[in-house]
Amino acid sequence: MADEPSTAAPEQTRSPDAATPAPSEASQTGTGRRLWPYAGAVLVVVALVTAGWYVHWRSRPPTVAEVERLLRRQQIEEAEQAARALVAADPENPQKVYLLARTLAAADKLVEAAELLEELEVDGPRRAEALLRAGQCWLRAHYRRKAEAAFYRCLEVEADEALTLPEIHQAARRELAGIYATERRTGDFRRITWSIYEESAPHDKSAALASRIRYDFEMVDPRVAIASLEPAIQADPSDVYSRRAIGFYYLELGDAAKARPYLIRCVQDAPKNPIMWETWLHCLVRVADTILAERYLEQVPPEADSLPLCWRYRAQLLDLLGRTEEAVAAAQRAVQLAPFDPENQYQLAQMLIRANRRQEAEQHIRRSQELQDLVQELRDAFERFRREWQQLPEPQQRCDLAVEIAQICEKLGRIRDAYGWYGVALHEVPNHAPAIEARNRLEERLLDPDLPY
């Protein structure tokens, strides 16, 4: 009999993983719900820690490196805020105060920056550099007299074995030279540029000497100068030097009417300052007002007697008033003080002709022409220097050009310049006998305390 098929369910093989029955969907959901409070607590703790760290990070003072990085990225406002926080946390730290001053200068808060730098309590080169930067900030803020004072204080800083100090001092001198060139303060310009020459390295001396010649032949455009100086008298109405310079440039433009209010205020505010009188007398010559001429000729202070230009303009005003003999005497005094000025010689000749002293006048006319020719020679030699100096291949060529300039300067009575240019020649050719002889001869002249700069 055939076997009947079994009706029992087939036996299933169970794997080890299947030893525990899988939890149902309901049990999984229940377990997740029980874990939710713990997960939420963890998230809250993480958030609190993060917030605490962020608050701590925001509340701590920034570092110097962070401020420097912000400055490099031109994030000026953020850098200023960070620098102020830095100083608030450590106000006695000069490095941090200096950094704040830098950020303020970058933010064009120049007055505050300059004041911080001037008060910075450091010594030696760092003090000199702080004063140099202070002067530059004052200059950018149009406080030219405060800038000038800061640069001179920089020059007063001394330090032993400070390698960077001479460079800082030279930078301050160049800033002063720029101020005096713009304000056409000839005496101050010559003094400071001679100091630049003396402190320059041998290979830089020709540039310092060239700036002194360039001053005589070149001038900033008067309109540009006036535009740069007007903010100075707005920032500091007591700045008579900037006010006088504006009047000077209006005279250069031939507008004596505009120059007059500036210059009359200068002699009122600084009645004993000779340079104010020099320019005011020049204005009176241009205006040709006899009433004003007579009034102010009597008010010229003794301090102005040392300026040749004051005597030149006095002579012209006296001539305008018909006081011929007095005009001759004033013109003669101008020639005595500046005998190498061709204009002084020519003016004296004209005054002598009016006084019927023609024979004397002819001598001064000839001398005036000789000096004019020398001035033109100096101009031509200087132009060659500008064009060719760097391209001349041989030291002997540079030496010859320097000697030529020196000889012209000596004939024009510019003894310091001649001495300097002979030195430039000897830097190129140390054994150049004529330059050695001339320099030794002029060295004695430099000892004269009255030798013009």
Outline the structure in words.
The chain is mainly alpha-helical. It has helices spanning 25-59, 64-72, 76-89, 94-106, 110-119, 124-140, 144-156, 165-182, 186-199, 205-217, 222-235, 240-252, 256-269, 274-287, 290-297, 308-320, 324-337, 342-354, 358-388, 395-411, 415-428, 433-445. Among the domains are: 109-217, Serine Threonine Protein Phosphatase 5, Tetratricopeptide repeat, CATH 1.25.40; 221-306, Tetratricopeptide repeat domain (Serine Threonine Protein Phosphatase 5, Tetratricopeptide repeat, Alpha Horseshoe); 392-453.
Give the key terms:
mainly alpha; about 450 residues; Serine Threonine Protein Phosphatase 5, Tetratricopeptide repeat; about 0% strand; disordered N terminus
What are the SSEs and their pairings?
Elements: H1 25-59, H2 64-72, H3 76-89, H4 94-106, H5 110-119, H6 124-140, H7 144-156, H8 165-182, H9 186-199, H10 205-217, H11 222-235, H12 240-252, H13 256-269, H14 274-287, H15 290-297, H16 308-320, H17 324-337, H18 342-354, H19 358-388, H20 395-411, H21 415-428, H22 433-445
